[in-house]
Amino acid sequence: MKVDMKIEMGSEVKDVLTGYRGICSAYTFHLTGCDVIAIKSRELDKDGKVRDPFWVDVTRVEVLAPPAPEIAKVIERGSKESEGDKPGGPQDCSQRSSDI
User: Fold this and answer.
1) Cβ atoms 24, 39 nearer than 8 A
2) In whole angstroms, what is the distance from residue 69 CA to residue 73 CA?
3) DSSP label at 74?
4) Which of 92 and 63 is assigned the larger pLDDT?
5) How far is it, in rounded angstroms, from Cα 24 to Cα 16?
6) Model's pTM, two decimal places?
């Protein structure tokens, strides 16, 4: 399966319908083609807690800025840590079908 990410992870984005702004922190691909991203706010809620991500269809998102250098470093570090035989991230599950 070929995946076409229309928005770069870590980009600053805005939902054009609601005006909600933040960082693209996750990208989910659906079989139906209705891809969605998680927008993670940089601001805390009224109680000082981290807000849950806001999930929105990619067609409603405007990219405001590319990933900031500090975010790009986190993304690069995460991709290096997930290489090899470590938990997390995309994995080939075809070899595990006999375990089901």
Assistant:
1) yes
2) 6
3) H
4) 63
5) 14
6) 0.68
**Where do runs of H (alpha helix) occur along the chain?**
69-81
The CATH fold of domain 1-75: SH3 type barrels. (2.30.30)
> Looking up tokens 């006999």, which residue turns up?
98
Cβ 40 vs Cβ 55: under 8 Å: no
- Of 40, 35, 34, 36, nearest in space to 13 by CA: 40
The 10s digit of each residue's pLDDT in 9-63 is: 899 999 999 999 999 999 998 888 789 999 999 899 999 999 999 999 999 999 9
Q: Is 43 helix (H, G, I), strand (E, B) or coil?
A: coil
